[in-house]
Amino acid sequence: MLNYQTxxxxxxxxxxxxxxxxxxxxxxxxxxxxxxxxxxxxxxxxRKNLVKTSATPGKTTSINFFPVDKVNFVDLPGYAYxxxxxxERKRIGELIDGYFESGRRIALTFLLIDIRHDxxxxxxxxxxxxxxxxxxxxxxxxxxxKLSKAKGERQMRELCGQLNVPGDTVALSTSVxxxxxxxxxxxxxEEALRK
Length: 195
Prior knowledge:
This protein has one domain (4-194): Rossmann fold (3-Layer(aba) Sandwich), CATH 3.40.50.300. It is built from five helices and seven strands, in the order ββαββαβαβαβα. It has helices spanning 37-45, 86-101, 121-132, 149-163, 182-194, and strands at 11-13, 26-31, 63-68, 71-75, 106-114, 137-142, 171-173. It has a seven-stranded mixed sheet, with helices on both faces. A hairpin with a 2-residue loop joins β3 and β4. It is globular and about 45 Å long.
């Protein structure tokens, strides 16, 4: 069992060239801006403000590392934030692609999707990249408290179909507000690290 009390912010990297070699297994988190990535990571860590959250989307513009025991949790920049400049969107796209294509010890990537909305083209592209690069991943649907349980289950099936992921892809439903699904995410992390 990981001791989440030991979590700390290590450092942020603005370019792929700055990244240190991958010495420990990595658990990465990726999703569109404003999907609730920082809030989810804080919930997993049982910390309120370790991973910086903001009311304004698009605040994470670097790759941020949070070591727990001998595992690195990696907060990747949110993608598809329209208000960024073209040059900044290009830099962030290259940063994300560089991370996934640099042969790091990625034990698991969580692709976060807001359960309330249809997926966007950028989500489909990201799921495709993960599959093409043979990176183990699971889908986390965020903000599940906004829908009834039955509607949420229907929506999960629908969105997995829209993402074109295999039928056996693990999909977890979470709500940071209600603290639902967080223990399941932790359990799945432990399982991935045992593989």
